[in-house]
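Hey, quick one: can you model this chain's 3D structure?
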Amino acid sequence: MAAQSPSLDKVEQRLRRELAATREAQVAYLETLVNIPSGSLNVEGVRAAGRMMMGTLDSLGFSTRWVDVPAEMKRAGHLVATHTGKAGSPRMLLIGHLDTVFEGPNQRFERTDSIARGAGSNDMKGGDVIILYALKALAATGALADLNVTVVMTGDEEMPGDPLSKAREALLDAAKQSDIALAFEGGSYTEATVGRRSASGWILKVTGKQGHSSGVFRGTYGSIYEAARILDEFRRELASETNLTYNPGTIVGGSDVKYDTTTLSGSLAGKTNIISPITWVQGDLRAMDQAQIARAQAKMQEIVGRNLPGTTAEITFDEGYPPMAVTAGNTALLELYSGASASLGHGALKASDPARRGAGDLSFVAPLIDGLEGLGAIGNGSHSPNESVNLNALHMQTERAAVMLYRLGKRKATEFRRPNAM
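Sure thing. Here's the predicted structure for all 422 residues.
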């Protein structure tokens, strides 16, 4: 692909002026959005946030719809909006999400100079308003008319419904009608993401022969010793795999154990002189590609099968988030984004370390189309009660996004479409 010009053309200069004029309006919009409580399980709150954004997208000429999910999933559903532009230009899928980790009265928007705090201010209502205000600027300059854009904002990214195949059906359907994907989670001054690891879960159930503690090591080791053996062998025998991690997040064992694998919560009773009959361990597994996932799961199964005397164990794996492999197409999108940033005077960008990026919705579409992640807001404290966003950086990220979208719209879809794509 040809390198981007280091300067801004007339339309890009107008985009910049438009974004400067709407800077405070964007912050006000973010404040209103943050103040709508929309935790992943708050169905009405997520829908309310979606209605607010649907209204904005409708005003820009998008065709919007709400995609419900089955009631038993206990999730709100997803916002899908489509804008049809010039034939032959790239079909761009812009990905955001409406739900937050925290919500509540103490999570409302609070601004101190250029820093604002509140639930989702950074992850990712900040990213959502970057999408909206980039599109608004493009509409104000007339450039949106030529762009083929689909916006998907999921309602359960922070706590996906089950099964994942159903929870992400709307996103996958949109990807099948797109050429490239741009995701607006956590941004950076100097980096963007061209690859990220998978995120899936595993559950280990260990059983042992209950008895008096004086008999331990004589024909039985109990479930806790067996669980400890398994975890330590995971640590020692898989440590050589670059970019592979396998973290035990919860463990509970004893003589009377109640454990809920959905809520990751439980209770136990026992005595120090009883050999434990039951132990549960639940954790996650992250890898760079499907081959690495398969190797890790096979090795973990092998280790689980080497039972100490008097014990049995079994491990199960869930489907989780797929990996986003680094591709030439992803790297080319980074070059375009970096060129837009440099033209704006914000500096060039490099690829972030895939192992340092958490899983996200872009991973689901990565097997279908090329994409770029990390176009979102910049702040601190994501997934904590102290989440914040840098409002100066919010403006910078919106400039970068607007110019990137405009430049992509001037290219041909065939430059980005994978050879086997429709």
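One thing worth noting: The chain has two domains: 10-196+323-415, 200-317.
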